[in-house]
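assembly run, all chains below
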Amino acid sequence: MLKLIIRRLPALIFVLFCVVTLTFFLVRLAPGGPFDRERKIPPAIEAQLLAKYELDGPLWQQFAGYIADVARGDLRLSTKYRNRSVNEILGQTLPVTFALGGIAFVLATIGGIWLGTFAAVRRDTAADRLAMGAALLGLSIPMFVIGPVLVLVFGLWLKWLPVGGWGSPAQIILPAITLALPFAAVIARLMRTSLLEVLNQDFVRTAKAKGLPDRTVVYKHALRVAILPVVTYLGPLAAHLLTGSIVVETVFNIPGAGGFFVHSILNRDGFLLGGVVIVYCALLIVFNLLVDASYALLDRRIRVDA
Amino acid sequence: MLEPGSAARILRRPAAKVCLGILIVVAAAAAIGPELFPESYREPGPLQYAPPSWQHPFGTDLNGRDVLYRVLLGARISLIVGLAGAAVSLFLGTAYGLIAGYCGGKVDNLMMRLVDIMYSVPRLIFILIFINAFDGHLRDFASRMDWPWLVSYSRIVILIITLGLIEWLTMARIVRGQVLALKERSFIHAARVLGQSHPKIVLRHLLPNILPIVIVYLTLTVPAVILDESFLSFLGLGIQPPQASWGSLLAEGAQSINPLKIYWWLLLFPAATMSATLLALNYLGDRLRDTLDPRR
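ok done. output:
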């Protein structure tokens, strides 16, 4: 495992470098600067501002300076939220996003695996078709429909749960479900396909022939192998959850990093935008590495360090 | 491979008939529906937030516009972006997969590693940055070239291109897998022995054989692109007013939810239209894929 991490490290750093570079230049390409307002600011003040945020001088120099700062862990100052550093903003908002994403991650994985297994062992029955129909529905209804509908039903009509905000455990339920549903559906479909395939294999027949109860055969023998495609999906799942949390945070008014991300694009706040993108990508890259490593632990036949 | 008649066999199922019916109705309504409305329905009117009635079956919005008319206009844009974006991803994914699979070895390894990396990066986030970086430039370019149509539609054009740019990964993987399998078949060996050039083998022998599976995955890419577009528009970073897509209509619907007065029709009708369309596309795509690959 350590070997795997060491082997992958150069590639990871390279990918992160590409991400930083791409973001930096894409923000620069966009028309309009961070200090454009309705009223034109005097050139002297603008020059001062540009100097303060190290946005003056030739482009390559700015870029080199930025890369050096990022390498030291300094994501610089936000150009919109004056006198707040990107590190500070992210420090306040990322825990919220991660809490939401983490809960949704657990919900989606457990719910999806359960539903997929439920459908696979009842293959071609009405229950199977109902479960897969539900999964197809979950896949087709976007989060920004599920979210407002849940708010409407559970928040405003039944008044069981709060409609938004962040802080109390009750406020986490609706957003986490909204975020998890589409991905639970994807995992359920993956799980069902994979389990059906495994249930046809010889070792399952042997286990059955030994007289093991069906539950043991499915949960102890088949599931361990059938879960591998789901594990492969966990990497992309984390990426989808981070993207999806932007919408869910907007719908439920949650003070996470997603809202800052959207505003940083509209405000041309390059350093804040860069900070969010860098942290998201770094996180996902590390997460994918962990997934790859756990893959080897689950199935000893696979050697990822080779 | 897709056997002749298997598509017809799928369509004989009642659920598939319903789905196809939904798609035809939505597409036809989006294509000709908005033209059938009287002039007065197209402009903001005095009736603000009117609930559904015979005059306005889907009700009216904040500015007194007819919601049915807006949903149909939105359907037009969402469907166009979905189809065209999927077409872009089709070309890109097929070309990429063909090259990777046909070259094999190190080239294949490198190309597929790149796909793996792109899978794990939040692509939609880059697309957001990309769109905002290039939209203004494209509009400037269009006005300099004196192409008025592109000035008003630059956002849509750029959405189509960029969304096509992110949804091609699955297509590339599938095409590559097919090519790897086909490459070792005797008719390809025969073509090579006969001295046919590489482009000719790829285009004349491999491409026709992978076409069915590519078309099946196209049916699944269209809803994915529609979903992506509506995601961007929902955040206010995709289609800009006064144009509307399902995503921007849903954003208006979601904003109108408040504890005092619930304008449910602003949310329900765009949501129902969009979900029904996506569901129908996903269902048909799934069934088609099942006939191609019985393992799934």
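The mean pLDDT of chain B is 79.

DSSP finds twelve helices and no strands in chain B.

not gonna interpret more than that til we talk
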